[in-house]
Amino acid sequence: MKNIRQIIEESGSITIAQFMEFAMYDAKHGYYVNKNPIGKDADFITAPEVSQLFGEMVGVYCVDKWMKLGKPKKINLVELGPGRGTLMMDALRATKHVKGFHEAINIHLVETNNYLREAQRELLKNYKINWYHEVYAIPDNIPLIIIANEFFDCLPINQYIRHENGWQECSVSIMPKGEEFFLMHTPILAHFSESLTKEYPKSKYGSIVEICYPAISIMQQLASLLNKAGGYLLAIDYGYYHDPLERIHFNGTLQGIKNHQFNPIFSDIGYSDLTAHVDFYALKQCALVNFCSVKEIVTQRDFLLKMGVEFRAEQLLAKAKSHEEIHEINAGLTRLISPAQMGNLFKVLEISSQGLGPSLLTHQKR
Ligand code: SAH
């Protein structure tokens, strides 16, 4: 199997997406294939790992949607990128007393990482679970509720930079016989460059647009799944929501994370996480043009407050047995909803199949 150096040397340079694809998903070297990325002893912590409140509120959301669907006797509960399985476990525990809900759900997990699949199998051993590698394998015969927390930010992005005479692709190259990787700008097709200028007419030279093609393709598949089977998708991630027509000066958001610290993107390839902020505007437009309904995008803070996170925290506090436990519950809640922490950076996108939500073509500005 070729290593990243051979791959780049053969072609001179590769796109950032190809670089991420290798670093994240290469069968032998990829970060998201065989390692545990999540937890205090690993590279990053996610909301469900911060506090049980998060998964519980997602459970509340799922029950609400199941009821809105008319309490179908059978429903597929799907999670994309379930990590250690903590969110699903907390959601299931929080909903076990809801009459008929557990009898109705079939659980489906989409996961590429073998290490994490084992962790999910262990944690969720009392439930019947179906695993898939790809979204297209999710069954479409009955209604579904799909959850995706910190899933879209893992997917490879391409970056394009605006110059005086058009746009170029940001690509990765390597010094001849050297160790150093570096970024260079390579030409793109003229008509693609023109279409970027039309899409980002106000962008200043030096601005970097990120396009996550796999996210768009997965969103298309999810939209058609929803329209066929009926149901809802809840996607939570750190990201931004800007109309491209109005964007003026913007930078790329690609970053490396290792041991809870930022890490240069070319360091520890395959052993350091690479992520980019999610373009919620693009995901929303994609769902809309694929005939789904989309709710106004809200912050994680507003979503959790609406689901009743403070009420649930009070219940937990009333049962807490030690000062440490009280501190842990309060600290977890603060981290999830404080605007200075995860509260505002994380956004929530809620999509439903045609006919279930407000009609949304009116939301489309263009
Ligand atoms: N949702 C979890 C984990 C987030 S980390 C949590 O909140 O804790 C991202 C998750 O997505 C991991 O489980 C990772 O292995 C998985 N993943 C990354 N890329 C994937 C892909 N292309 N298809 C399916 N799962 C993927």
The first-to-last residue Cα distance is 46 Å
Shape: globular
Sheet having the most strands: 9 strands, mixed
Helix coverage percent of residues?
Answer: 25-40%
Strand content: 15-25%
Spans of at least 5 consecutive residues with low confidence: 358-366
Helical run tally? 15
What is the average of the pLDDT values?
Answer: 93
Based on secondary structure, the structural category is: alpha/beta
Radius of gyration computed on alpha carbons: 21 Å
Total DSSP E strands:
17
Classify the oligomer: single chain
What hetero molecules are in the model? S-adenosyl-L-homocysteine
Provide structural commentary.
By secondary structure, this protein is α/β, with parallel strands linked by helices. Helix 5 (52-68) packs across helix 6 (86-95). The termini are far apart. The strands form three sheets. Strands 2, 3, 4, 5, 10, 14, 15, 16 and 17 form a nine-stranded mixed sheet that branches. The protein has helices at residues 4-11, 16-25, 31-34, 47-50, 52-68, 86-95, 101-104, 114-123, 190-199, 213-229, 280-289, 300-307, 309-319, 323-337, 342-345; strands at 14-15, 75-80, 105-110, 129-132, 144-149, 158-163, 166-174, 181-187, 208-211, 231-240, 255-258, 261-263, 273-275, 278-279, 293-294, 298-299, 346-352. The protein contains 15 helices and 17 strands. Residues 358-366 have low confidence and may be disordered. Bound molecules: S-adenosyl-L-homocysteine. S-adenosyl-L-homocysteine binds at residues 32, 38, 46-49, 81-83, 87, 110-113, 116, 149-151, 154.
